[in-house]
Amino acid sequence: MPYVGNIEDVKWVYDPEEAMRKGSPILIDTPNLEVRVIVLPPGAYPPYHAHHEEMDEGYLIYGGRGLILNEGATFEVSKGDVLLNPRGAMHNMKNIGDGELIEFNFRGGRMPSGFLLPEGDPPPNPDPESVENPLAPPVPYIKGDIAGLTGPFDAESVKEKGLARAISTEYLECQIVSFPPGGRPHVHRHLNTMDEATLVLEGRMNFIIEEETIEASVGDLVHTPGGAWHTVHNASDAPAVLFNFRGGALPSRTEWRRRRRPSVGAVREPSLHQETRTLAVADRPQCLPEAPVPVLKRDNHGGLSLRSNSRILGNEPFLRCCFYRHSGECRNPEQTRMPNRKTTKKNNKAKDKFKNKVPGFRHSPE
Ligand SMILES: [Fe+2]
Ligand SMILES: [Fe+2]
């Protein structure tokens, strides 16, 4: 089901014991993408940790004020900031405000993400406020109101040029886009080796994914599995702002649905006029998934070196979506085929294999 929940219903208040015992709840949990919404109470900070080198981690600070400690340097973040951790860098974040710090956390690449603790028994966990090394943010980082990143939406230009990305790496990309009333892109799908998700930041938006239509509003999180035909439509009379992100095999390659002559056996294009379904609170997931925690030793996988291929593109026009436009066809139809039971089974198998193969990983504490 594409609808994941509203932040207010699915956010998880950080509990150190629970985090170490079973990890933080993962709201979207696929071999390509993991999403969490974590609330740090005032003064709380999770263990100082790093992730492996085949994934990237990004944050949207949804509310509150925090101090990030990253490889020995600290810098402050607050509501509306979007940032990317340098790959392999040790980090943690403390709530330095009086209220909740709400962290919208997304990871893309090889999952499960897991984490590595520093050497030592018990592993050191410095309080970011005790570190006197304030520096300019050493990470690809966007400071300020997310509204400042919002670009005008135009379906044709999106089809030609793609959207400006706030963050773009080989594993993770995100963008913030505003849709005027009536705005909608053409129906499209992405590779089934990546997953896409969207958080509604302002207004109301209809998500049409395969045969399902979801009317989403502020705080709603929607998951579009790789390979699914989808589009969005602002049917309201006010602008809507979306935070859209993707994880897995990137750059994301988009196949636009041809309106005429649909191929035999293709999934029917979802109608924009079908009745929308507003999810009642009772439909929303109240209980979060639990998973066993493999407690394993640190290994020598992935040194903690910083790689430079993660970069920020800001509002620079992005051209990857043109990839298919030149030929008019998907270059590798195998890669964009619809997910089937066999593929899902294979993905899960690959995920388990990876989980068992790589020692030193635990479920994330944050
Ligand atoms: Fe992390
Ligand atoms: Fe999409």
Short description:
Helices cover 10% and strands 30% of the residues. By secondary structure, it is mainly β. It folds into two domains: 141 residues, Jelly Rolls; 122 residues, Jelly Rolls (Sandwich), CATH 2.60.120.10.
Number of domains as seen in the coordinates: 2
How many helical elements?
A: 4
Low-pLDDT ranges? 142-165, 261-267, 269-339, 357-365
Briefly note the CATH topology name of the largest domain: Jelly Rolls
Could you characterize what this model shows?
The chain has 366 residues and is mainly beta. The protein has four helices and 21 strands. It has two domains: 3-143, Jelly Rolls; 147-257 and 268-278, Jelly Rolls (Sandwich). Helix content is 10%, strand content 30%. The strands form five sheets. Strands 2, 3, 4, 5, 8, 10 and 11 form a seven-stranded mixed beta sheet that branches. A six-stranded antiparallel beta sheet has the order 1-18-15-20-13-12. A three-stranded antiparallel beta sheet has the order 7-6-9, with no helix packed on it. β3 (28-29) and β4 form a beta hairpin. The longest helix is centred in the last third of the chain and has 17 residues, at 341-357. The protein is globular.
